[in-house]
Amino acid sequence: MKNTLARGLTNLLPMVLSIWLFWSLFISLDGLGQLLLNSLGAPFMFVGAGFILVAVIVFIAGLLFSVSPIVWVYGWLERQLMKFPLFKSVYGSIRDIAGLMNRDGKPKTQKTVLVKQASGGYVVGFIMSDNTPQPLTDALPEGDWVPVLFQLSYQVAGITTLVKRDELINVDWSFEDAMRFNLTAGISTAKGNDVAKQKETSR
């Protein structure tokens, strides 16, 4: 009984939460779009019309940001607002997250590596960038240093450590799979192996 409930919860919970999250996002954006339509005097049309309007506005904004004068004006406005410390902290964090989401056309520098510890064990890490900030490069001893992220289990947060490139062991493992391994402390990989074994047994 207990195992059956746990199995049902394990399989249903991720699907239900994912659908709820995307549905909540859809409703929020649709409500924002409907508010814009109402402010323009347009009558209520159908559920989803506001979401379509928001999507169109975002698409048009993307087109406009390909025009140099608009990019320059927006950059100037951004620099003026960044002079306010509180705005700089909040806006900077959101902008960095948005930048991580938009990786199209940019080389993916994230690589999975192993870093040897003093105890002889190894820790899974990620090279997030091939470039180290110049102030850090000037302060560090001579060598090819790269920032390596060590993800904490069950947390989005992690620890960034500077490690010499020749002390890293490259791993032929996708960033997404390795990140999932770290976030779940290896549980997701163990679960995947169990499913694979069950499929082999059933053949």
Automatic annotation (TrEMBL):
InterPro entries: COV1-like (IPR007462). It holds the Pfam family DUF502. Keywords: Membrane, Transmembrane, Transmembrane helix. The chain crosses the membrane at residues 12-32, 44-77. Coiled coil: none annotated. The keyword Membrane applies. It comes from the Bacteria. The keyword Hydrolase does not apply. PANTHER family: COV-LIKE PROTEIN 1 (PTHR31876), PROTEIN LIKE COV 2 (PTHR31876:SF26). This is DUF502 domain-containing protein. It comes from Shewanella holmiensis.
